[in-house]
Amino acid sequence: MTFPSLEQAQAGWRKALDALPTSPPKIPAFFFAHGSPSLAFNESLLGTLTGPVGEMRRYLGPTGPLATFLKDFGPDLLKKYNPKGIVVFSAHWETQGERLVTDYGDENPLLMDYYGFPAELYDLKFKSRGDAALSQRIVELYKQAGERARTTPKTEARGEDGRGFEGPGLDHGVFVPFRIMFGEVFTDIPIVQVSIDSSMSPEKNWALGKAIARLREEGILILSGGLTIHNLRDRASFAPTTARQIYHEFDKAILDAVTISEALARKEAMINLRKHSGFRTAHPREEHFIPVYVAGGAGEGGNVVVISQTYGTATIAFGV
């Protein structure tokens, strides 16, 4: 099996990004590959890793195609949409039955919710801010849709931190890619994070995106992060050169489903992806796949464009 070179992949996503309309009435909602802490690895460390783990780290690391894509993706989002705010969902924050919405004030703390990584990964910086009015607007829209929702402040812990405490903050599915997309200091545009639903129901998470779709008309960029392939029990699954055929088949099935032109048929095909023979292999637990439904709901009814088709790390625009 042959795979596109980095140069070929970049030419493809650059063409797709350039073709997105500038300043549309509704900003598209995006499912994006948020990667892993490997994105922040020191390049010198990558050369010491061998086997499937080495391939994974290099593919998902600071010189791989995902990091290269994110460097192009972030600036293009700002240039095309000039958003007033960013609302982000991550595979790494789920709550049951109630949406939690960050309201962190002048500086968003970071939750380093990963373990066993080099010490330097616990010194990462990403300075950003929240916005109380945006947080309250999100809660309002959820309540209008019949959903339970509330804000959560800095004083309320939301998870375990690899530095040895429980704390609040944007998780690594947000700040690790955002550092690459927007730089280590990004305070001009507020960022608010919202939890996904832990039921892992495609329909419930689709509804979470649909409930806040109106934000797209209000100048707000909606980003929902995960990965199209995520099996930590099989490190070989993360890189195209080491992944078994079943992973490639499922990855292609995702792209086939999201590019169906008719909206209802597309949604049905996306939901039916859970019946694919490779689904459970690719996602022993589907928290990294569920964010695609949040983005699909937020962009319901519009066209869909696959921005990046790179294996396991696709980025998709809904509502174009």
Automatic annotation (TrEMBL):
<comment type="similarity">
    <text>Belongs to the DODA-type extradiol aromatic ring-opening dioxygenase family.</text>
</comment>
<dbReference type="InterPro" id="IPR004183">
    <property type="entry name" value="Xdiol_dOase_suB"/>
</dbReference>
<dbReference type="GO" id="GO:0008270">
    <property type="term" value="F:zinc ion binding"/>
</dbReference>
<dbReference type="GO" id="GO:0008198">
    <property type="term" value="F:ferrous iron binding"/>
</dbReference>
<keyword id="KW-0560">Oxidoreductase</keyword>
<protein>
    <recommendedName>
        <fullName>Extradiol ring-cleavage dioxygenase class III enzyme subunit B domain-containing protein</fullName>
    </recommendedName>
</protein>
<dbReference type="Pfam" id="PF02900">
    <property type="entry name" value="LigB"/>
</dbReference>
<keyword id="KW-0862">Zinc</keyword>
<dbReference type="GO" id="GO:0016702">
    <property type="term" value="F:oxidoreductase activity, acting on single donors with incorporation of molecular oxygen, incorporation of two atoms of oxygen"/>
</dbReference>
<keyword id="KW-0479">Metal-binding</keyword>
<feature type="domain" description="Extradiol ring-cleavage dioxygenase class III enzyme subunit B">
    <location>
        <begin position="67"/>
        <end position="311"/>
    </location>
</feature>
<dbReference type="InterPro" id="IPR014436">
    <property type="entry name" value="Extradiol_dOase_DODA"/>
</dbReference>
